[in-house]
Amino acid sequence: MHDVIIVGAGIGGLTLALTLHRAGIPCRVYEVADEIRPVGVGVNLLPHAVRELSALGLQDALASVAVTTQEAVFFNRFGQLIYRESLGRFAGFEWPQFSIHRGDLQAVLLEAFRARVGADRLHLGWRCTGADQDGDGVAVHFRRTSDDAELPVQHGAVVVACDGIHSVIRKELYPGEGDPVYSGYNMWRGVTRWPPFLSGASMVRAGWLATGKMVIYPIRDAIDAEGRQLVNWVAEIETPHYKRRDWNRPGNLDDFIGAVADWQFDWLDVPAFLRAADVVLEFPMVDQDPLPRWSFGRITLLGDAAHPMVPRGSNGAGQAILDAQALADALAAHADPVHALQAYEDSRREVTSNIVLTNRKNPPDAILREVYVRTGDKPFARIEDVIARDELVALSDGYKRVSGSSREALGARSSSGAP
Ligand SMILES: Cc1cc2nc3c(=O)[nH]c(=O)nc-3n(C[C@H](O)[C@H](O)[C@H](O)COP(=O)(O)OP(=O)(O)OC[C@H]3O[C@@H](n4cnc5c(N)ncnc54)[C@H](O)[C@@H]3O)c2cc1C
After folding, report:
1. Is residue 137 in contact with ligand 1, taking CB distance under 6 Å?
2. Nearest C-alpha to atom 36 of ligand 1 is from which residue?
3. Residue 240 confidence (pLDDT) above 90
4. Segment 202-211, tens digit of pLDDT
């Protein structure tokens, strides 16, 4: 088979390249950035994605740079505990959950790519401008990032758009697609160097959107002599306006810190923690309506290019990784690349569309919403009087089923909840 052309060396593109390489399918990757730098902040990899990366032999490399997440913990804005559940290996899964800096994840993938696929198969500073096809293959067009000069047309068997939320190829396939859909909530993200809190590997969700919600979890262990961690945080607040989405737009603490000014919990002084941040970024909670079609002959979409979702269920990176596995399987199973791309779409489009829609309405944070609504945003005496534990478990498990990260989907190692 001729090479698969991959546009974008992000999480999906690099995983696809590694998975294709393992299947003996040649590929080349083209990336707009002149160099791959550790940009972004934290992402979570749930066991379903870690399973795929483990099959690529990357689990140890990931474990050495990530935090192996132990538990999810939900609090109201008064610091009262609503719900706690074990995660990953600590919940009996065969695979761990990792909380990781996006740059560290990309670096692990990149190192494996260079060692296995070959550094000469990664072209940096190539900005894709579009793709054409005929019965025999694809022709993909690029300009040089540094000076916008036209670069030689690249030919291959198929082209896979792994070029993220501003995908050029998606735009070419859907020129009339409207603006991103704004959820009405703005998001500020950042990292702070801070001593371990709670279990030292807890993913915390607290508050609610109307008055301010936070997600906080460590992504690097023991980063200095005092044993501090690099802790990722996200603040989400109902906000009528938003600026164009850009993963690296600097944000301003004063725009949101007032919402959590009195969040002094016995395990974390939230305002002090935020004031100590190294980085503050701003990002609107936007997504795009699910598409009716991803594969057009020899051209297809993958990851955020195919299904951008509001980052609320720890599934953005994970679903790109699952897409990569499905596409490599389809290309290995079908001699005709057009059939392969269709089979890939058939196996992934509906599943990921459901996740996009569920992230809008019922992500895991629905637990916080229920308590906010039922208590009228007041402290409670006993959580059992507000919501039954079974209901909390059902809310959490419901999302896992939609995203394919339930124990049933992956196979349980034990159901005791013990590590
Ligand atoms: C700079 C950056 C920072 C991010 N930070 C976070 C974060 O902090 N938290 C989080 O949850 N998610 C973050 N994400 C998104 C997260 O990586 C994705 O949601 C998820 O991993 C899906 O991966 P993907 O491969 O589809 O997209 P991405 O990982 O976004 O990769 C897309 C790649 O395509 C490249 N590209 C774009 N346009 C072109 C073009 N025309 N030609 C060639 N290459 C192109 C991009 O430079 C990028 O390397 C970030 C993405 C980026 C690009």
Report:
1. no
2. 163
3. no
4. 999 999 988 9
